[in-house]
Amino acid sequence: MSTLSFPPLMYGEEVSADAFSHACMKATMGCDAGMIAHAFAPNRMEAALVFAPEVPLRRAMAMLPLCGVGFQNALGALAPPEVAVHLGWDGTLYLNGARCGGFRAMASGTDPEVVPDWLVIGVALPLWPETDRPGDTPDQTTLYGEGCPDVMPPQLVEAWARHTLHHLNSWEQDGPRALHADWRGLAQSLGEDITQGAASGTFVGVDEDFGMLLRDADGDTRLIPLTTLLETAS
Questions:
Q1: Could you tell me what percent of the chain has a pLDDT over 70?
Q2: Is the pTM above the cut of 0.90?
Q3: Contact 64, 210 (CB under 8 A)
Q4: Distance from CA of residue 97 to its chain's centroid?
Q5: Other C-beta atoms lying within 10 Å of the C-beta of residue 84
Q6: Could you tell me the CA-to-CA distances from 81 to 73, 127, 187 in Å, in that order?
Q7: DSSP code for 117
Q8: Which residues are bridge partners to 46 per DSSP?
Q9: By the number of CB atoms within 10 A of the CB, which of 112, 166, 213, 217 ranks highest?
C-alpha cells in the first residue's frame, strides 16, 4: 500500500480497485469532504475526491472542470513539456490530441436546484496500452505511451490534490471567473462542430455554470447543462 501526502483538509484511502465506487460509498456513509480514494494497477490509475457542496448542484458541478484543470496543472508539472493536455467538456482527458481516460461525477441527488449532500468527482487514466497493437485505436492513448514513463501515479494523485485545492479555494473566494479563463485555455473542440449526446452543432462556449452552448445550422443556441453528465447509482 502507498502512503501518500495530501494538503490540509484532504486525506487518502487506497483501495484495490474502483476508487470512484469506493468514494461514492464512503460519501453515502457520511465521510468528511476531502477524502481521496485511489487505486493503482499496473496499467491504470484511479482517484476520486469527495466534496460537500454548499451551493445548488448546477453550480457545484463546476467541480468537474475544476478537477480537470487541477489535473492538467499536476500532469503539466510532472510530464515533459512537449506533452499537451486538454480537457473535453464531458470530462474526457486528451494527451497530444488523443483520448486518455477522463473524469466522471455522481451526487446524492440530481435536482439542479437542490444542494446535494455530497458530490464525487473521479478520474481514471490508462498507463499502458492493453494491446501490443496500439495503432489499432489511433484516437486513444496512454500516459506512458505519450512519453511520460517517469510520472509515477502516487505523485500524480498528490499533485492533483494540491492543484485542485488551490483552484477550489480560488473558486470559493473569488467566484468562477478565473476557473472559466483557465478552462477555456485547455478546452478541447471549442469552436468546432461536435455531437454531444443527441445534439449536434458548433461548440461556442459555456454558460456561467459550465453548461455547453451548441449553435445549430439555423443559428439557434442550445444549452446542455453540466448536470446531464451525472451518473446515477445502479
A1: 96
A2: yes
A3: yes
A4: 17
A5: 14
A6: 12, 18, 18
A7: S
A8: 39, 124
A9: 112
Class of the 11-184 domain?
Answer: alpha beta
Please say whether the structural domain 193-229 has been given the CATH code 2.30.30.100: yes
What per-residue string of b and e applies to 132-161 under the rule 16 or more CB within 10 Å gives b? eeeeeeeebbbbebbebeebebbbbbbbbb
- Residues composing the chain: 234
Nearest C-alpha neighbor of 62 from the set 73, 53, 50, 74: 53
Cell numbers describing residue 1? 500500500
CA-closest candidate to residue 123, choices 72, 176, 188, 53: 72
- Domain parsing of the chain, residue ranges: 11-184, 193-229
* Gap between the Cα atoms of 55 and 57, Å rounded: 6
pLDDT (tens digit per residue) in 102-154: 999 999 999 999 999 999 999 999 999 876 665 556 789 999 999 999 999 99
- Could you report the per-residue pLDDT of 66-106, keeping only the tens digit for each? 999 999 999 999 999 999 999 999 999 999 999 999 999 99
